[in-house]
User: Fold these one by one.
Assistant:
Number 1:
Amino acid sequence: MAHIPTEVRRQQFIDAAIEVIARDGVDGATTRKIAQEAGAPLATLHYCFQTKENLLWAVFEYLADTIRTELEERVPQGQSTASIAEQVLTETLRAAIDRPSANRAQLEIWLWAERNDQEVALRLYDMYVEVWREQLKAAKAPLPDDEIESLARVVLALVDGLNNQLIAHGDEKLLRREIDTATAMLAAYLGRRRRRSA
């Protein structure tokens, strides 16, 4: 049997965990099920991550990094704040449509953390606030830091709400209409704010 490098094996476990968590929830996603899904020995999973909690953190971090990378590739810097906020919201929800298992697993992990360890839940949430904050700071004329912080949290709240609706109803056409409404609201708010500042 050929040796599989640790980093390759780690990614196999992360991919398998996403599928199992999306299907069975965090509590139902035992390390044994995840190892079976990955087609790897349970001992290898424990070697790579030591604990289930470490694996959950790695999954969430991987999903956040995936979104960060996609936004960096798809949302050009130097645009207006409104344009960046609209694209961040749209691209994040596009990813939710394109990768339903990852979308569901992410929510399941956050809810599990919120029930079991508030500090971890906050750290997970802050990962996404930081992603949005980075994007909004790249605007042509960025807002002051405190306003970027508030806007990043509002964009994340919109993403979370629309994401939950997608999970509940599964209707992509309805979600796209709701995205249009949310982006129009962001544009109206930021346009009004810009006129007040001028």
Number 2:
Amino acid sequence: MHRFGYTLREFREARRYSLRGLAEKAFMSHSKLQKWEGGDRAPKDRAEVELIDSLLHAGGVLVDQWERIRLDVSARGHVSVSSPHVSDASIGLATAASQQAASDHEGIFVPARLRDGSVVFVALDRRAMLRGGVGIGAAAALGVGTPAAAASDVMPGLTRPPRSAAAYSGNPVEHLRLARRLLIDSDNLLGPSKAITAVREHIEVIKELRKEATGADRQSLMELQTQYGEFASWLYQDLGDFESAQFWLDRAFQWSHTVGDGDLTSYVMARKAQLAGEMRDLVDVVDLAEAAQRMARPRSRLAAVARTYEAYGHALRGEDTDSERAIDDVRNSLDRVSSDTTPWGVWLNEQYVDVHRAQGLEVLGKHAEAAEIFTAAIKSLPAGYHRDRGVYLARAAVAHAGAGSPEEAAAVGLQALTVAADTGSGRIVRELARLDRSLVPWQRQPEVADFRANFDAVIAHEA
């Protein structure tokens, strides 16, 4: 239902319909469409879905996703399925988690160019996509058909043997912590799709080990489960699947309260603000960042991290003075927070703050200044941060285009496209889609035409 709602919204916005305008065109109620998009209610009438699909020229994608909802409802015997929310009861969230975990591997979000030239992320069925040969280039770039996913498709009845803590040398917690560190490194080098299956499997392993654990071991496993949940959210965020990213952050937020670690809970709340900023949610981003600062220890590193995300939120709202003031506050706090012993937000340094300032400047229309800061950040980025380099390159390219330097924008955009192909990062692809649109006025220039042709070649196309 969330994938259906996400795809419906992407097509609607790409076709430049307001929610109310589409409802009037389809002779439907505004509230009904709003519930479809929010994942709160599944459509009951196939004819209505076919009408919306036709109006949005979705080529049957919405109808196919609706069929999957109906099949799932029939198999479960449910009349309706409610969307998970952080305020739901624990048992309801646990049920929603198991349902989502069972179905997430079935689909993949891929960038697709519509007939009007716009680029959207569409949730496609993995097996139908491979069977039909649709968007194979995009599928390969985004990691469809990885060995772990393929095994679950080919052997859906495969069961896992019971886990034993004694099977691990030393403490299983240390083993799982090491695995998480290695997965984090692999994510930046190879992209999220290579790590996400392992992260989801490790969460299930931790849950199983918790059944027999007691005392400090049980507490440590719960803390680790929270960390893995936050990491799963990050991977989905980088894939471009914001609905799943929100879902796992909500789970991590709930789990963090059972751990009783104030720093961990504050960090997850700050991440919720960061995700809201990436989604360009003008309503929630500043409120979430301010909430994270209230939860954090006064004058701590986590308070500064949250203030950084607040700065970008103010920029999104067009509040340039508030944004610059927040950035200055963070920069002035760097020496003080460097001695903070919390393990969270250790990457907060002057370069990280500058990158977020550049993001804000670009949103505020100060493109040349943003491009200069991004370029400096790319030069000083340590080796091994391959995906992050690609994100910075893509954002720098957008800033160059905004500053009226199309040749530079196209050249930097091609570098970012290489990293996108290596890692399958949806964040990079989203920035490159923005770049693709902004370069249209210069599309006859050879450098620009070369970038746009290469970008067009790696994404799926509407039939």
